[in-house]
Amino acid sequence: MNIKKIAMTALAGALLIGTAACGNNKKNDNNSNEAMSNSNASVEKSNENAGKMEKKDLVVFAAASMTEALEELKTEFEKENPNLSLTFNFDSSGTLKTQIDEGADCDVFVSAAQKQMDELDKEEKIDKETRFDLLENEVTLAVAKGNEKGIKDFKDLEKDEVEKIALGNADVPVGQYSEEILKNLGIWDKIQDKVTLGSNVKEVTSWVSEKATDCGIVYKTDAKTAGLETVAVADDSMLENKVIYPAALLKNSKNPEEGKKYLEFLKGEKASEILDKYGFKPLNKGIK
């Protein structure tokens, strides 16, 4: 009887030990799997962070009139170059040139006139070998839909019915073009009491759209984007030079190779297609 009891006790002890061992093994397996899962997650997170760290910001200063076109092209460029992110600064070319002179970070400059680019060239602030003429635009006289004052031509600006005219100021390319047109037509001095000056072409366009002024002189592309009526277009007799937009890499660019890549992209087929869509005339056939 005692022997049987001893045997039963020993068997129960053995079963208890076995169960404990299985439990420990299972716990160890779970810990091992959890550790492996955490390790994999850490690796994935590390890779993700590494990818983010490798992404570079390319800073582009561009004429305000290019806002819509370049914003649309941004998606295409970043799709082709996932490690690059475009940061834009849109304003009048004169303001952008001043910011560059004051030391603002800029990789690529796209001006709405040769004047500002020529000045930077003389100051040896651009990489001359990268400079090229990107596109051509036109200067137009625009009115809001309905043309309430019946304006048909630049010379109509001196009529009594026309009370407010929006123009770009003297350091804005579209303002400089406007002054040249109106002086060549002999009406610049006659309309000064009617003129309201904007800091860039977008501001001028906005005033015309909101009917804050009777009309404004803006680029063809801005009139098109804003849904304005173009009543007149400046011809060669009004402007000595065509409205050409040059582009170039800045000499002090922090990302020169990436900047050159972007400039080549702007010469490409897709860029030409989008620029044309917004009313610009691309000056490059489009590199596939």
Automatic annotation (TrEMBL):
State the UniProt keywords alphabetically: Cell membrane, Membrane, Metal-binding, Molybdenum, Signal, Transport, Tungsten
InterPro entries reported in the protein's UniProt record: ModA (IPR005950), ModA/WtpA (IPR050682)
This protein's GO cellular component annotations are: plasma membrane
Q: Which segments carry the region annotation Disordered?
A: 27-50
Instruction: Give the protein name, as stated in the record.
Output: Molybdate-binding protein ModA
Q: Which residues bind molybdate?
A: 65, 93, 201, 219
> Subunit info?
The complex is composed of two ATP-binding proteins (ModC), two transmembrane proteins (ModB) and a solute-binding protein (ModA).
One GO biological process term is:
molybdate ion transport
* A Pfam family hit: SBP_bac_11
Naturally occurring in which organism (per UniProt): Anaerococcus vaginalis
Q: What is the lineage of its organism?
A: Bacteria, Bacillati, Bacillota, Tissierellia, Tissierellales
Q: Where is the composition biased (Low complexity)?
A: 27-42
